[in-house]
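As a warm-up, study this chain.
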Amino acid sequence: MNILYEDNHLIVVNKRAGEIVQGDKTGDICMAESIKAFIKERDAKPGNVFCGVIHRLDRPVSGVCIFAKTSKALSRMNELVKSRNFHKTYWAVSKIDIRDHNLDNALQKSVTLENWLIRNEKQNKSYVVKPGNKEAKQAILDYRLLGISDGGYGLFEVDLHTGRHHQIRCQLSHAGFPIKGDLKYGAPRSNPDGSISLHARKVEFEHPVSHKQIIIEAPVPVEFERMFGGIINR
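Now compare it with the structure written out below.
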């Protein structure tokens, strides 16, 4: 387990692609249960261990994932998320058609995407729909194109303003940038390990108890380093 930050109230780990944050119909062991078992053994706790899920990352996504070690921390962190005082930054790799995009003008400039999304529960997929649909929810994000690899892939930095189901995957695909490996949203082929090239790079928030500003970054994935090392390490 790769722990990025821990105190008496929170534990933050670097999630691996393929891990599930919370239990689902697959019955696979989830991160919340693994963390409980880890803390119980490490700290020799005689009773039950609390581990509350604050935010979720899709199974094929990697990066920063935060859990609460107390019910008070969970409640206060949930309020931060609801009030949008919990800031998440993601990195995504997407194929770019150079013919369709003015890349010189796009590099490093912030672009806002605002769409209305509707979730199909049976397909476990979200769709962009026209405004006015009563079942749709507003989805807003900003992205910057940080650089382009020799193979024609772009490294995108994404800042979320809302937290909708599959928001980044759906909105980037709708904008013409399906995430590498994400077959569900238009990528032409999967990644060998079943992941998608989306990484929760950084979180920023006010600590629920100490009220100090906390900034936590996850290490850069090997794939990202290989493709964009010259850009990332500049």
